[in-house]
Amino acid sequence: AQKVTQAQTEISVVEKEDVTLDCVYETRDTTYYLFWYKQPPSGELVFLIRRNSFDEQNEISGRYSWNFQKSTSSFNFTITASQVVDSAVYFCALSDPTGANSKLTFGKGITLSVRP
Amino acid sequence: EPEVTQTPSHQVTQMGQEVILRCVPISNHLYFYWYRQILGQKVEFLVSFYNNEISEKSEIFDDQFSVERPDGSNFTLKIRSTKLEDSAMYFCASGTGEMYKREQYFGPGTRLTVT
Predict the structure, then answer these.
(1) d(C-alpha B55, C-alpha B102), whole Å
(2) Which chain B residues are within 8 Å of A95, Cβ to Cβ?
(3) pLDDT tens, B47-105?
(4) Which of B42, B49, B75, B98 to mutate: most A Cβ within 10 Å?
(5) A52: which chain B residues are within 8 Å (Cβ-Cβ)?
(6) Other C-beta atoms within 10 Å of B25: how many?
(7) How do B53-57 and B110-114 pair as beta strands?
(8) pLDDT, tens digit, for every residue of A43-82?
(9) Which residues are CB-contacts of A49 (< 8 A; sequence separation ≥ 6)?
(10) Residue A31, SS3 per DSSP
């Protein structure tokens, strides 16, 4: 069975601080996909990034960066120089490769509050 | 940029009533999904749909739930006899299913309140 653990439930930082959101996953599959989604206060789920299990390159997109470590089954997300607009719930998710229509298994989410 | 749309944004219904939640997936996507999120909790998979049939469903998706793609654009979730515990945000999602691009794009959600 697949499982995603986001041990942090709430994080509060002051604007311009860096913050790292942790994600640990469990799967028996050798090929899988990992995702981060953002849920702002308005409620929608916004896709941020996908990482395929065979691609361990870290990725940076502006102030966002992701660190995928297969050895520790982790896929952590860092926001550099946080801004108030980053305040949201962030979900890590895992998809198995059994079919193109495979479901996403979500973690419980981390509520990030960025204070001015 | 294409997006998934959902209607209504908020639905209030009485226990025992039937509701239909509607979704228009992104037009070139082939895989469709429903998820739900009870307030303050994580997002849970309900059902996936491909080629006009259910591919997978969770244990939440019991006989009171059904899905349909009545035409080339809409994808609906019907809850036959609503219960108080069905109150949640329901998200529709779609994806291309392309290898190495398994992300799903979510609609804005329908908040269902059962009274």
Answers:
(1) 15
(2) 102
(3) 999 989 999 999 999 999 999 998 888 999 999 999 999 999 999 999 987 777 788 99
(4) B42
(5) 100
(6) 27
(7) unpaired
(8) 999 999 989 888 878 888 899 999 999 999 999 999 999 9
(9) A35, A36, A59, A61, A64, A66, A77
(10) coil
